[in-house]
Structure formats: C-alpha cells, structure tokens
Amino acid sequence: MEPKTEELAGGTEAPINKGIAPNRVGQGSPQVVEALIQAGRKLSTGLKPDELPARILEHLAAVVPYERGSLLLQEGETLRIAAQRGFPEDDRVGSLSIPLREGDVYYQIATSVQPVLVDDVTQAPGWQQVEWLPLNLSWLGVPLFSKDRVAGMVSLTRRESGAFSPEDVLLASTFAMQASVALENALLYEEITRFNQQLEQMVQQRTEELRQALQTLERMDKNKSDFINVAAHELRTPLTVMRGYLGMVQADAAIRGNPYLVQALEGILKGSQRLHEIVNSMLDLARIENQMLEVRPEVVALSTIAKRVQADYSGFLAERKQEMQLVDLEGLPVIRGDATLLLKVFQNVVINAIKYTPDGGDITISGRLVQDEQLGKCVEILVQDTGIGIDPEHHELIFEKLYSTGEVALHSSGKASFKGGGPGLGLTIARGIVEAHGGRIWADSARHDEESCPGSRFHILLPVGTR
Ligand code: ADP
User: Fold this and answer.
1) Site to substitute for ligand 1 among 364, 384, 399, 404, most atoms within 8 A of C-beta
2) Cα 222 to middle of ligand 1, angstroms
3) pLDDT: is 383 or 237 the higher one?
4) pLDDT at 7
5) Which protein residue's CA is at the shortest distance from atom 16 of ligand 1?
6) Using CB atoms within 10 A of its CB, is residue 331 exposed (0-12), middle (13-18) or buried (19+)?
7) In angstroms, what is the span from residue 404 Cα to ligand 1's centroid?
8) 3-state class (DSSP) for residue 383
9) pTM score, whole prediction
C-alpha cells in the first residue's frame, strides 16, 4: 500500500491559504536577515544537485525554525522527496512519493504560485495525517521554481498550532527563491556536465572509428604495395623470356620474308614493350616505397630533358594533332639531380597532358626561377595543357598509387589515346622522384569538364643546388 503523504502534500480539500499579511512582515531580526544572506551565499557555491536539497533544509532551519521539513520535487505526475530533516528513522521515508491530486496543497501552491499556510491541520477540511508520523499541527508549504514555473515545494511543520508567523512565510518564500536559483544552477551544471561526458564519449567513439578506418586504409595501402611488388617481380621473368624469344623470331629470315608475320610480330613486340614499361613502373614504385630509389646526382639542364621528351613523344603529338611549346627554359640555371629519374617525371606528366587533352590541343612546358619559403631557390617547371581538367577534390588523390579518375572500361592499349587511362602509377612515381630530389609536385586545375576543357597545370618545384 502506498504511504499516506497528506502531511506533505495536503488533503483532498484545499486547506486555508492565509497568504501573507503585509502589515505583519518585514520585521525580521538582523540575525535572521544575516542568516538568509549567508544561506543564499552558501547555496550558490557549486553544490552538487544531489546534496543541495539537504543543504537547503539545513540552512532554512536557521532562517525559519521548524520541527520536520522536506523538499519535494515534481516529476511528471508525482512529487518525489529529495531531502528531509527531522523525520523519524523509518525505511518508508526514503520511498515517499506523492501522486499529484487536484485540490491538494501542492496543487494550490502550483496554481496560485503562492505559499500555503495551515495553522492547525486537524481543523483543515480533508487533511489526513500520515499515521506513522507524529502529529504536528502547523504546516507551511512554499513553492520552488524552475524556469518560471513551480517545480516543487518545501514542506515545513511544527508541533504547536499557529506556530508559523506571516513573517516566517515571507522569510521561507524569500529563502525558497534563492534555493530555486541554486537548484536550477546545479541542475544546469549537471546537465552541462552530462552533456560534456556524452560529447567526450562521442569523440572517443569517433576517434576509435577513425583509428579503425585508418588501420583498414593502411592495410589496404599495404595490400596494394604488396600486390604491385609481387606482380612486378612475377611478371618480370616470363616477360624477359618472351622478349628474348621474340628477338630470335624477329631475326628469322623466314619470318622477315612474310609481311603478314612481320606485321603480327610488330604488334606483339609493341604489346610486350608496353608491358615491360608497366612492369618497370611497378618496380620503380616498389623502390620508392621501400626507400630504395637510388638518386645519382649530376648536373642537369631541365631544358635538355624537356627537349628529349618533346622529341620522344613527337609521334604521339602528331598522332593526336597536338602542339607542344617549350617556353623560357633555356635561361634556367642547371640543377643537381638524376637525369634518368627526372626524365621519368617529365615523361609521366607530359604523357598525361597528351592523354587528357583532346586532339588538336596545346601543351606548354615552361620554366621560371622562384624563391620558395621552405625549399629556397628553386626551378619551377610548369606543364600546362588544354585538356579536360581535374576537379579540385582530386588534385591530391591523383598522386595516390593505382588512383584513376576515369573508368577502367575506357582504358585502352594505346599509350597516348584520348582519356586512355593507365595503371595509375605515373604521378605516384613522379612525386616519389621529385620528393627524392627534395622538391614538390602538385596539380592545379579549375575543374573537370570535357566540354569546355579548362586544362590542367602541373607544377614541379626542384631546388637549385641540392643533392
Ligand atoms: P594513369 O596511369 O591513370 O595516367 P597517373 O598517376 O599518371 O595514372 O594519373 C592519375 C590520374 O590523374 C589519371 O587517371 C587522370 O584521371 C588524372 N590526370 C593526370 N594528369 C592529368 C591531366 N593532365 N589532365 C587531366 N587529368 C589528369
């Protein structure tokens, strides 16, 4: 059976609401006023929400003496006891909770937003006493507020009838105001603390998710490297054997005399040459990743390398009806670098410019001397095309190994055919080589658009006089 709680919440019929008689208040002694001020100060000093109700009752006793007091907070349709003072030792005290009923004292307090004073509970119509509590005749209930609405009350009793004066009512109400502010602050603080904890938990969870994602990415990246490494080494031997036999067959007089077989053989040779280049690229990448790339520095004129690429790719340029200009390269200072490796950088960047530019487009290789904040004096080579361009979100991704923005289905065997695609190793190798020279390489393009062809520009920054 539910405990009777009428002392705390009042009877079914409204008891007397005496209100506050203005002509009898305002005569608090200086000590009481001081106690009120002190209590307000102490309550506002960062108490935890669970210890605050007991402290409120404790400080209230110094302002308005009472024999039994309780602090009740509204939770949905019930009032829950948050603290008590002067109650008998009884297990039932802790579980006191009062269903809200229309007409009871709390209902009155909540609707009138006023304290309620009962001088003699035995005279109050409908008042029922909790039978296990000693009968106290005087009862005073004052509202507690939260966000401008009544959120609970402080219930005080005294043994004698008429024991609470209107001054007590005023003091208790004033005190309850301060207590409400303290309760609200403590609850807010708790809410913020809880929110912070939740946030921290979320951050930890996300960090863990990111850590796992990073681990997966690292594993995938290693798988890619392992695949390239193993495939390159496994393909190299049979390819070398094939190329050896092809050489022998090519030299055979019987074949040389048959134009059909000569043509077929040329096709096989071209294919094996392309395969050879891809395997070599895979081996280059494996060397870069294992930090086994050997840079053999010598004096290099980048204009010579550019001219060599132009000459090597003249066939592709003619095939694609593209023009290649070399601009401002002659006056550039020489640098120290590995000419063979730097040639690969130029080849990889220029072949892309050819591939991703429509027939009839222009490719310009230019150079300038720049002062870089980190690298100091550098030669900057710019490879500009009038091609399909690259979306800014791909500018870095294209340097990832095996990364390709095009569709694999469009990859063709032609090394220079429009949007021909490739294994996605060229720029990764170019970056590896440039970085091994202490330089930087990056892409620059407004967008990818196959209609308007905004073009791309690759920057290759190589320090002068290093390595
Ligand atoms: P691939 O073997 O696919 O050419 P790369 O590493 O050389 O590999 O290039 C990666 C990707 O970068 C290409 O698939 C292409 O989508 C893009 N790309 C590179 N250069 C250009 C360019 N000049 N214009 C447009 N896209 C380019």
Assistant:
1) 404
2) 22
3) 383
4) 58
5) 405
6) exposed
7) 6
8) strand
9) 0.64
Q: Which atom of ligand 1 is closest in space to residue 425's alpha carbon?
A: 6
Please classify residue 218 by burial: count the beta carbons closer than 10 Å to its beta carbon, then call 0-12 exposed, 13-18 middle and 19+ buried: exposed
The answer to whether 78 and 97 are in contact (CB under 8 A) is yes
Please report, for residues 230, 249, 258, 459, the alpha-carbon distance to residue 271 in angstroms, rounded to integers and kept in the order given: 21, 16, 20, 32
Q: Which of 393, 394, 434 is nearest to 288 (CA)?
A: 434
Task: Give the separation between CA 36 and CA 25, rounded to whole angstroms.
Answer: 15
- Report whether 57 contacts 41 (CB < 8 A): no
Pocket of ligand 1 (CB under 6 A): 348, 352-353, 356, 385, 387-388, 390, 398, 403-406, 421-428, 456
Protein residue with its CA nearest to atom 13 in ligand 1: 404
In terms of residues, how long is the chain?
467
| Ligand 1, atom 23: closest residue by C-alpha | 353
211-262 pLDDT, tens digit per residue, is 999 999 999 989 888 888 888 888 888 999 998 998 888 888 888 888 999 9
